[in-house]
Design a protein that fits this description.
The complex is a heterodimer. By secondary structure, chain A is α/β, with parallel strands linked by helices. Chain A has 10 helices and 19 strands. Chain A has 2 domains: about 190 residues, FAD/NAD(P)-binding domain; about 150 residues, D-Amino Acid Oxidase, subunit A, domain 2 (D-Amino Acid Oxidase, Chain A, domain 2). In chain A, strands 5-6-4-14-15-16-13-17 form an 8-stranded mixed sheet. The longest helix of chain A is centred in the N-terminal third of the chain and has 19 residues. By secondary structure, chain B is of the alpha/beta class. In chain B, about 30% of the residues lie in helices and about 20% in strands. Chain B has a 5-stranded parallel sheet. In chain B, helix 1 links the parallel strand 1 and strand 2. In chain B, helix 1 packs across helix 2 and helix 4 crosses helix 7. Chain B is globular, with a radius of gyration of 22 Å. The chains are: A alpha/beta, B alpha/beta. Chains A and B meet through helix 5, strand 13, helix 8 and strand 17 of A and helix 12, strand 23 and helix 14 of B.
């Protein structure tokens, strides 16, 4: 069976690896280079802490279990470049209202089987000595982890190539070739490519690519920005974020949603997120958005006021109005499959997504219920304004 | 006309180009805000000694000092000019598509090492960008040793602080800038053992010798070079062409350099290596234009420089450019480009006789720039000097070998992935030093497509949306506006 994976970001790479290891003939296409767009512009979150009970949490738990297994499977390319760090997350509420909401949310997660430990002031000060003392509630999630996203994508894609997959870069999908209502080939800037199945893993461009193939899905870009400081001595030891992050992730508002997410990287830099805006593919960095991110981060870590920001970058998350990924066959166009719409969680969710997609595609029983991610649900097929 | 209704021109950079632009915009009747990161105007060319040195003769080592001093006093003392010293433009916010207004100019003002600089925002009617260039250094084994200086740094130390970098110095690289650097070192008391121009004499002569009448208009520049040459001769400093420093060695700091004869493409002629004992070496391979602000403003580039029309207008609405970002041509060219840009930015009449004269002088200056580029190109063979363990990015200590490995693995070969995987260019200098070299090295190894994908632009070493570091505390505060 021949499969063409459209998109060489982390989700495409994970799908290609999983399919190639099952013996399928896989070709990965990308109009740019591998891991050059959304994958290269995120933070590398592998989180369970920001997800309430439900299908996304199940996908997150599956993925969280798969990550260490995948990293242990390959000797080359070296897993070192993935910078896997099971550092754990700490969610901090600085207001009483926030604390009540966080306590309720953590309770619901515990009921679903997530480890969520409430930290008292002493435990928090020990875990994060530089965090603000002005904390109403702090919850530790030991399962949260981090990767260097571009390195992780290269690792997965390298695994796919070693399993026999082929990579074609600089190859843009232009349209579909159908036969008897079935997708049999894609027309690309580098010629027509035939296959038995096509996996749309083009992230925020999924909507555009699916439209070119004649089966539009409602995946839209949602802009985010990250600030990067100069290298610092160790100051931040976990992924530390403000309890309103969960609210911002769950919101669908067009206007700016911002909440503090603070973490250090192996290189010594500190990454400060995060913002969410729906501005199409407008890639301008707005200084006032960066200012809001700085303000929120300083509320969590006042000691960072003198630390210089040396860089900022922005990316486009693939946003679906109901905040669930789209994974599975497209009932309108047999031969077309989707694996996208992860919004800001695609790095972490890529292994589970790949496993689920490959199970569905090869007719194996999936490990989690695929129904919530199906393509023919109203949020995905509804075209037009979501107001 | 009141100050508020008058046309407002913001000029970024107070070197020769920016100062001239400010003067011309004032002459055209505009209100001007002149912004520069330094404490005093002059840029790299007229680098001034700090006030506390109380230099008796500040004009020593400075060409055209009297004219510069007059211009500086005129501009800074002008009632319609606001001079913002120690002010860094950290971001330019370009308007949306179809909006013809100038970008918003985001500034932090105050001593760079002081706490709590203030954040300011300008909304000018026109913006003149004149940020200049910094000197370029190609990597070679040992270039990261203490005692290896960029030509620009050595010049700045000698001119700005009167600090001697070493007693026995070799100056090497490409371009006429090596001569004033050697002269500054001699004046400051160093022994300059030799000046090495990597390009062979044939290339240098062919570049300069074509259409010699065009040089006449640049008599000032030519005369300046003649003076340096005479100074070198007086000190018996040999000027050798077709030779380069290809390695620096030493235990903890540079003790000797290896020089070698080069072919026209800068590949090493083996067997011609010589070892020279030194305690410092100065290297400079031309200049890299500071393109982060033009790119942030949305200006199109042509052959690595900002594309401008006859009035120095860029392709971005209400943004003009002058000086080295439009082509490396030295201070006299930068000044006349600044005059043209400032006059246009200030709303001056393009048909005015002095504007026409300035444009003619500018055209001749551009011809000089083309000649300079032809005489002192960067040869393609320089990567041959590198070894796998040679550091190419000094901030992150990325080696040439690591870069090649990342670029040769198909799964990580995209420029962005190589950068994130090897961290080349991600350190505190943000690729200002290594960016162009890393980009060239990657482009040579089976270049992977790194096309603009949707909203993302292709990777460029000059893309720095945060153009200057800004502290979190400064960024968090709301800015002052309507200035």
């Amino acid at each position: 069976m021949r499969v063409v994976v459209l998109g060489a970001g982390i989700v495409g790479a994970a799908c290609a690896r999983e399919l190639a290891r099952r013996g399928l003939a896989v070709t990965v296409l990308d109009r740019g280079g591998p891991a050059a767009a959304t994958t290269a512009h995120g933070e590398g979150n592998v989180l369970v802490s920001d997800k309430g009970p439900g299908p996304e949490l199940e996908l997150a738990r599956l993925s969280r279990r798969l990550w260490p297994e995948i990293l242990a499977e390959h000797e080359a390319p070296p897993a070192d470049a993935v910078e896997w760090d099971a550092k754990g997350g700490i969610v901090v509420a600085t207001t009483d209202a926030g604390a009540r909401e966080l306590a309720r949310f953590a309770d619901s997660q515990r009921a679903a089987g997530i480890t969520a430990d409430t930290l008292d002031a002493a435990a928090l000060a020990e875990a994060e000595p530089h965090v603000t003392r002005d904390v109403a509630l702090a919850v530790h999630y030991p399962e949260d982890a981090q990767v260097q996203p571009s390195g992780a994508a290269a690792f997965l894609l390298g695994g796919a190539l070693r399993a026999g997959a082929e990579l074609r870069t600089g190859c843009e999908v232009l349209g579909a070739v159908t036969s008897g209502g079935r997708l049999t080939a894609v027309r690309t800037s580098a010629g027509t490519i035939e296959a038995d199945a096509f996996v749309n893993a083009t992230g925020p461009w999924s909507g555009e690519v699916a439209a070119r193939l004649g089966a539009p899905v409602d995946v839209r870009p949602r802009r985010g920005e990250v600030l990067v400081t100069t290298p610092q001595p160790p100051l931040v030891f976990h992924k530390v974020y403000d309890a309103d992050y969960v609210g911002a992730v769950g919101s669908g508002a067009e206007e700016l949603q911002a909440s503090a997410v603070v973490e250090s990287t192996r290189a010594g830099t500190i990454l400060l997120g995060s913002s969410r805006r729906r501005v199409g593919f407008d890639d301008r960095l707005r200084p006032e958005v960066l200012s809001v991110i700085a303000r929120k981060a300083l509320r969590l870590f006042p000691c960072l006021a003198g630390v210089p920001v040396m860089r900022a970058y922005g990316g486009f998350r693939p946003y679906v109005p109901d905040h669930l990924p789209v994974i599975g066959p497209d009932p309108r166009l047999p031969g077309l499959w989707h694996a996208g719409g992860h919004e800001g969680a695609g790095i972490g969710l890529s292994p589970g997504t790949a496993l689920l997609l490959a199970d569905l595609l090869t007719g194996r029983a999936p490990q989690i219920d695929p129904a919530p991610f199906r393509v023919d649900r109203p949020a995905v097929l509804f075209e037009g304004d979501d107001q | 006309m009141t100050a508020r209704t008058r046309r407002h021109v913001a000029v970024v950079g107070a070197g020769p180009a920016g100062l001239a632009a400010a003067a011309a915009a004032l002459r055209a009747g505009a209100r001007v805000t002149l912004v520069d990161a330094a404490e005093r105007p002059g840029g790299q060319y007229h680098r001034m000694l700090p006030e506390q040195y109380r230099a008796a003769r500040p004009e020593r080592l400075h060409h055209g000092w009297a004219a510069f001093d007059r211009l500086r006093r005129h501009v800074l003392g002008h009632p319609r000019c606001a001079w913002w010293a120690e002010s860094s433009v950290w971001s330019l916010e370009r308007p949306g598509p179809g909006d013809e207004t100038a970008p918003r100019v985001h500034v932090v003002r105050g001593p760079a090492d002081g706490a709590g600089r203030e954040r300011l925002v300008l909304d000018p009617d026109a913006l003149v960008l004149a940020p200049g260039a910094h000197d370029r250094v190609l990597p070679f084994p040992g270039w990261d040793l203490p005692g290896v200086f960029t030509a620009g740094a050595a010049q700045a130390l000698a001119k700005g602080e009167r600090v001697v970098i070493g007693d026995r110095v070799v100056v090497a690289g490409a371009g006429p800038f090596l001569l004033p650097v050697a002269a500054s070192l001699l004046e400051a008391g160093s022994t300059v053992l030799e000046v090495l121009e990597a390009n062979p004499a044939a290339t240098v002569l062919r570049g300069w010798g074509r259409r010699p009448w065009e040089l006449a208009s640049q008599a000032g520049k030519a005369g300046e070079l003649a003076e340096y040459t005479a100074l070198l001769a007086r000190h018996r400093v040999p000027y050798r062409t077709g030779r380069a420093v290809i390695e620096a060695r030493g235990d903890g700091r540079v003790e000797e350099v290896v020089t070698a004869r080069l072919r026209a493409d800068w590949s090493v002629v083996s067997g011609t290596e010589r070892i020279v004992a030194v305690d410092a070496v100065c290297v400079g391979h031309g200049f890299t234009p500071q393109l982060e602000l033009p790119l942030a403003a949305g200006c199109a580039l042509r052959e690595g420089f900002v594309q401008v029309d006859g009035d120095q207008r860029t392709t971005a609405p209400a943004v003009l450019a002058a000086g080295e970002i439009t082509g490396i041509a030295g201070a006299p060219a930068a000044r006349v480009e600044g005059l043209v840009a400032g006059w246009a930015a200030g709303g001056g009449d393009a048909a005015a006789p002095e504007a026409r004269a300035a444009r003619r002088r500018r055209d001749r200056a551009r011809a000089f720039a083309a000649r300079l580029a032809a005489a002192h190109p960067i040869g393609d063979g320089w990567p041959g000097w590198l070894r796998p363990e040679t550091v190419v990015c000094r901030c992150e200590e990325t080696t040439y070998g690591a870069l090649c490995r990342a670029a040769d693995a198909p799964a990580s070969a995209a420029a962005r992935a190589v950068k994130l995987g090897t961290r080349a260019g991600l350190g505190p200098c943000q690729a200002r030093i290594c960016g162009p070299s890393v980009a060239e090295l990657l482009a040579r190894r089976s270049p992977p497509p790194d096309l603009a994908a949707g909203g993302h632009r292709p990777a460029t070493p000059h893309h720095r949306p945060v153009a200057q570091p800004i502290r979190l505390g400064e960024l968090a505060r709301p800015p002052k506006e309507n200035l």
